[in-house]
Structure formats: C-alpha cells, structure tokens
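Item description
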Amino acid sequence: MKLHVASARTALPRETISRMFEDLGAPLDGLIGGSVENRSPIDGGMLCTLKATGLGDFEAVVERASAAFAKWRLVPPPARGELVRRFCASVREHRGLLAGLITLECGKTNEEAAGEIQEVIDICEFAVGLSRQLYGLAIATERPGHRMAETWHPLGVFGQITAFNFPAAVWSWGAMIALVCGDSVIWKPSEKAPLTALALNGLLEKAASTYSHAPAHLSQVVIGDKEIGRAMARDERIAVLSATGSTTMGREVAVAVAARLGRSILELGGNNAAIVTPHADIDLAVRGIVFAAVGTAGQRCTTMRRLIAHRSIADALIERLKAAYAQLRVDDPSKPGAHIGPLIDAQAYQQMQKALATARNEGGDVWGGERVLEEEYPEAFYVRPAIVRMPAQTGIVKAETFAPILYALEYDTLEEAIALQNGVTQGLSSAIFTTDMREAETFLSASGSDCGIANVNIGTSGAEIGGAFGGEKATGGGRAAGSDTWKNFMRRATNTINYSTELPLSQGIEFGS
C-alpha cells in the first residue's frame, strides 16, 4: 500500500495515523495521546502526540530485553537469520507505506524515502547471509597435543539512539546485525521521527510473533528526550550502545558508557569535502557534487559541505554548479518531481541563516540560501541551497551546519588541497574527482584523506551496506553496516584445548619437579 501525502495545510487526523499503522499490522494502541509532539516538516502540521517512556517504564524495558537475550543467544545463528528474512519480506510488502511515512515525518522526497527503505532491505539480506558466516579462527599453537581457536558469542542487549534524518536505515544497520549475532535490541529514535521507528519495530515484532525461536520483547522502542538516552548510556545491562547525532551528544554518551567500561559505537558529525582537480571529468563532478550537497536538504551526516577546487577551474566549476542549482525544484517532497524538501524545523532554518551571516562576516560571497514557499507553507521551512565562496577555511567552514550550504575553497597544489580536506575536526566522508591515477592513489594513501570514507569520482554521500560506515576524529570512530562490524556485537573468546596426556606450559616453562 502506498501512502499519498497531500500538500494540505492541516494536520492529519489521529484516525488517519492509526489507520496507517493498522495497515502495517502495527497498531498504536496505548501510545497516541501523550506529550511528545510529532509534526510534519512538510507543512508544520501536527501528526500526532505520543506517550513518552518514563524512567520507571525504561527499567521494565531493560529487564525484558535482558530476559529476551538470555533465550535468543541460545538460538543457532542461521535460525536467527530466518527471523531477519521474515522481517525483510514484510518490509518489501509494505515498502510504499514505509517510504511515505518517512516523507511525511522527515520531509524526504519520494525517491529518497524509497531509497532508504531499500537500504533496510539490503542490510537484511546482508545479515541473513552473515548468519552463516560468523567465523572464528584456528590459531597455531606451540604445544603438541593442543589446539587453539577463537570463538565468538552473543554479547548482550544492544541499545541504539538514532537521528531524524535516516529514521529507518541507520537503525537497520545496527539492529539487523545485532539480531543475527544473538543480541536483543532497544531503540530510541529521534523525537522528531518516532513514527517510522514504531512502524518498523511493529513489523519486526509481528515477524517474531510468528516465529517459534524468537522470544518476546526481542526488540523494543522507547520514546523520549535526552533523559532516556542518558539512562541508556548509564545502564550496565546495555552491553553495547550505538549513537548517531551531534559530536556534543556523542561526547556525553562516550563518557557515560566508558565510565561503566561498556562499548559504544559513535557516528557523529561530518564536515565532508570533495577535491576537484584540473584532471577531473567536470560533467561527472557537477552531478556528484550537486547530489551530495543538496540531497535530504543538506541534512545528512555525509552531506558535502566543502568544495576544494583547483584555482584554474574554480570559476567555471562554480558557475556550472549555480546553473545546476537553479534547475532544482524545492517543493513539497511528496510531489512528483520535487528535488529538495524542507528543513526539519524552525531551529534548523535559524542555524542555517546564522551560519550564512557568519560566513559573510568572514569574507564569504553567498549565493542562494534564502527561504522559499513561505506564503504557501508558513509553518514549514523550505530553503534554496546555498553556495558560498570563501577566502579561506575560516571558523564557520570548519563547523558543521545541518543544512544545504556548500563552502567553496581554492587550492594550488594537491598537498594543499589534502591539508584543507583534513584540516577540520570531523573525519567522516571525503572524495576526489580526477582522472589522474597518481592524484587518486595519493588521496587514498596514508598521506591522503584522514576520513573513514574516501571516494574517487563519486560524491561524499551514499554508501553501500557491504562496507563499514563511519569516520575518525570527532566523528567518533564507530562503524556500522557491513564488512566485519559484526564483531562490535559479539564477545571474543580464545580457547585452548589439551587433547594430550601431558601438560606442557607455554614458552617452555617448567613448573615443579
């Protein structure tokens, strides 16, 4: 079923929201009518109010998660993968409705929202395959009649805190891997995007209810503000906590989790840059830059925020970008043909305008950035993407603003460009556009980009689930999705088995006579 989001100026009735969730098989009984307001950025209208999870309720959630883990860890990994496969089938069945829900509460275009649900499907397929590949090692031993091995076991309760901009994909990157690794899940979505979380978790609960191996309360959602997040960070029963959001939030989570010697997976701020060299395919570069800089209205952690162009091509490249930007349609994201939807709320708009004012004061030449569609949507915040030519990498350029602002800088040597690219505290994603092999390989080398993601001839946003996603420095150092990130969700044991009648000690030590 596809959800059609009308560009109405009024809030959706509570009954409409309830019917949506009934269609998904995930009714909202007992949740609607609380103090947590959920508004659509499309027109600012109220979608519904939800009941917050109190700290007393949270205690019960963790107890249930712990009990579920004690049972789930005994289920063989391929059987855990079967639950994920069933959930994936349900997501496929309801993909249109789920994408429509993301558009409604996050303001993503239809195409972007559909792409995010496809990411959920993709990571489910990855996790199902992974459930048969949780390999340990056979280790060479110096003692005859012995065998050494490395084994991996379920870790415990997995807690996840997600941001509004990817309300489905980021959760799935962690939760699906955690489930096949034998962990139970507690999910705190952003207060700005709780409905998508409730819908997805409802589908997962429904799949689990029909699967005899799955214990009750294997995955739970908590609704609330920072206090619930802080409780998750402090709770020793949550073995690993993943948090996506600002660097400020990540520092607080990291300190709290480290204080109890727990594990944290942090995916924090990004201030991503692309270097464009004189050897670049400019047509390709323009397409890559535009998508990375304006997608999701600049509200991605992987949004391209800095353009570092060689001085010989900078003027021509920026004119090409302005021409491309002028063709973009900023509109209600549920309408066909819309390229850019709204910012999430008034605060995001104010932060964007403050950043542009600061850029002007620091010598920047601002093109675009103004509010649009204000008469049509007075309670929503649609903006024209901005390109800002800067004389240097000033303070505002080094700061992340979650909005469609692209700061343009110039360079003379590749060494200088790489220094600019690395000269910020964040280290998430980076790119270079060039057809010169030496430039590309230098960028990817140890003396090149210092980011967790380094691309050649593709933008900074958009990562396939098969690779590990995350960054260095103030981005937090965490990794999610593919590769060997499953090791974050399990505990490692080194085993030594003596099948001889002797007891030789390591390093040839003799003990006693």
About this structure: Residues 1-11 have pLDDT under 50 and may be disordered.
